[in-house]
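so my prof wants the structure for this chain in the tokens format not the other one, which i didnt know existed until like an hour ago. anyway here's the sequence
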Amino acid sequence: MAEIPGWIFIGLVAGVLGKLIMPGRDPGGFIVTILLGIAGALLAGFVGREAGFYRPGENAGWIAATLGAIVILILYRIIMKSRQSL
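here's what i got, hopefully its the right format
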């Protein structure tokens, strides 16, 4: 449970990195992208720990958190694009 604040911090940075790696207009803007980065880091942390990449108490790595942020951002763009086309 103590690792969650670390994941959130990494998620802030991963959200910014994700936005730099995947520029473009996102519904919700920069703040939503940072929040998606936090979600991606949390996802990477939980999945990485369950898969045995991280032990309890270790934070998700920067690369995993950034990849998690990018995956969440891609999913977000797909969902928002499909909603706009309806």
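also thought this was worth mentioning. The CA atoms of residues 14 and 46 lie 16 Å apart.
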